[in-house]
Amino acid sequence: MTAEIINGKEIAAKKREEIAKEVSKLKENGVTPGLAVILVGNNHASRTYVTNKQKACQELGMHSLLIELPEEVSEEELLAKIDELNHDAEIHGILVQLPIPKHIDEKKVIESISPSKDVDGFHPVNIGRMMTGQNAFLPCTPYGIMVMLEETGISVAGKHVVVVGRSNIVGKPVGQLMLNQHATVTYCHSRTKDLKFHTKQADILVAAVGIANFIKAEHVKEGAVVIDVGINRNEEGKLCGDVDFAEVSEIAGFITPVPKGVGPMTITMLMYNTLKSAEESINR
Ligand code: NDP
């Protein structure tokens, strides 16, 4: 293997220490950052994510509130709950764990969260602010990727970044954050013709596809930085990314593993956003 591993777990641990220090300072001033997580229904994966978020809050000394609603909860009831949390002074961040049941309009739910408590960074107001380079809550996974690069000393300015995937929560915003930092950005997706032609040109390649081991060595330029966002299970049920690690690590310059790569950064940036919201609440 030639690539240097970007250890997300270590970077996340360092960031969490910094966050914990800021949390104790805030608490000395009488403010405890509080995150409310709403879980609708009983999706197994969602429950695991929610438990991990609560655990992170507790470890960092933050207040965490879990609101569990039944699968058949009405849209109206869910919106009423969010409205209540929007007005709760002890809550600085509100997160509705996705996916939510089909009978509820996801867009409406996201837009009902106050942009000042939207620590997931999914509200159109925060997305617009991010696009125009204003103060915003940045979506956690893309933000985590930027922090990983910064902590590894990889500069983005002037680089050609190729993002495979254009979802609203990962692909699109990660490209935008790269552009904000002066990268030249190419987006690829399922309709892209000759994917390899594009990915081969990447100085920094971000894979956010959701297909196990999709990116092969033939897609990667020698020495490139490869960021693997994917969380998939392979045929043996083992956790793996969108990048064929064994192959690609032979030619990449830097690579993020799965697990211990982008994953730990996501919750860390959620914690950071909650802290930021609590700090900003003091001046509101
Ligand atoms: P989505 O399914 O929403 O998006 C996948 C994207 O990949 C789409 O834009 C799709 O294109 C594109 N795509 C699919 N097939 C191909 C193909 N053959 N060639 C090129 N592009 C293709 O996924 P997410 O963005 O939500 O997540 C991506 C991965 O990241 C998943 O594995 C997910 O589990 C993981 N993830 C990890 C997180 C973490 O914390 N590490 C957080 C969030 C997600 P099109 O738009 O044309 O359909």
UniProtKB/TrEMBL annotation:
<comment type="similarity">
    <text>Belongs to the tetrahydrofolate dehydrogenase/cyclohydrolase family.</text>
</comment>
<protein>
    <recommendedName>
        <fullName>Bifunctional protein FolD</fullName>
        <ecNumber>1.5.1.5</ecNumber>
        <ecNumber>3.5.4.9</ecNumber>
    </recommendedName>
</protein>
<dbReference type="GO" id="GO:0009086">
    <property type="term" value="P:methionine biosynthetic process"/>
</dbReference>
<feature type="binding site">
    <location>
        <begin position="165"/>
        <end position="167"/>
    </location>
    <ligand>
        <name>NADP(+)</name>
    </ligand>
</feature>
<keyword id="KW-0560">Oxidoreductase</keyword>
<dbReference type="GO" id="GO:0035999">
    <property type="term" value="P:tetrahydrofolate interconversion"/>
</dbReference>
<keyword id="KW-0486">Methionine biosynthesis</keyword>
<dbReference type="InterPro" id="IPR020631">
    <property type="entry name" value="THF_DH/CycHdrlase_NAD-bd_dom"/>
</dbReference>
<feature type="binding site">
    <location>
        <position position="231"/>
    </location>
    <ligand>
        <name>NADP(+)</name>
    </ligand>
</feature>
<dbReference type="GO" id="GO:0006164">
    <property type="term" value="P:purine nucleotide biosynthetic process"/>
</dbReference>
<dbReference type="InterPro" id="IPR046346">
    <property type="entry name" value="Aminoacid_DH-like_N_sf"/>
</dbReference>
<dbReference type="GO" id="GO:0000105">
    <property type="term" value="P:L-histidine biosynthetic process"/>
</dbReference>
<keyword id="KW-0378">Hydrolase</keyword>
<dbReference type="InterPro" id="IPR036291">
    <property type="entry name" value="NAD(P)-bd_dom_sf"/>
</dbReference>
<dbReference type="GO" id="GO:0005829">
    <property type="term" value="C:cytosol"/>
</dbReference>
<comment type="subunit">
    <text>Homodimer.</text>
</comment>
<dbReference type="GO" id="GO:0004477">
    <property type="term" value="F:methenyltetrahydrofolate cyclohydrolase activity"/>
</dbReference>
<dbReference type="InterPro" id="IPR020867">
    <property type="entry name" value="THF_DH/CycHdrlase_CS"/>
</dbReference>
<comment type="pathway">
    <text>One-carbon metabolism; tetrahydrofolate interconversion.</text>
</comment>
<dbReference type="InterPro" id="IPR020630">
    <property type="entry name" value="THF_DH/CycHdrlase_cat_dom"/>
</dbReference>
<keyword id="KW-0521">NADP</keyword>
<dbReference type="InterPro" id="IPR000672">
    <property type="entry name" value="THF_DH/CycHdrlase"/>
</dbReference>
<dbReference type="Pfam" id="PF02882">
    <property type="entry name" value="THF_DHG_CYH_C"/>
</dbReference>
<feature type="domain" description="Tetrahydrofolate dehydrogenase/cyclohydrolase NAD(P)-binding">
    <location>
        <begin position="139"/>
        <end position="280"/>
    </location>
</feature>
<comment type="function">
    <text>Catalyzes the oxidation of 5,10-methylenetetrahydrofolate to 5,10-methenyltetrahydrofolate and then the hydrolysis of 5,10-methenyltetrahydrofolate to 10-formyltetrahydrofolate.</text>
</comment>
<keyword id="KW-0554">One-carbon metabolism</keyword>
<keyword id="KW-0028">Amino-acid biosynthesis</keyword>
<keyword id="KW-0658">Purine biosynthesis</keyword>
<dbReference type="GO" id="GO:0004488">
    <property type="term" value="F:methylenetetrahydrofolate dehydrogenase (NADP+) activity"/>
</dbReference>
<keyword id="KW-0368">Histidine biosynthesis</keyword>
<dbReference type="Pfam" id="PF00763">
    <property type="entry name" value="THF_DHG_CYH"/>
</dbReference>
<keyword id="KW-0511">Multifunctional enzyme</keyword>
<feature type="domain" description="Tetrahydrofolate dehydrogenase/cyclohydrolase catalytic">
    <location>
        <begin position="6"/>
        <end position="120"/>
    </location>
</feature>
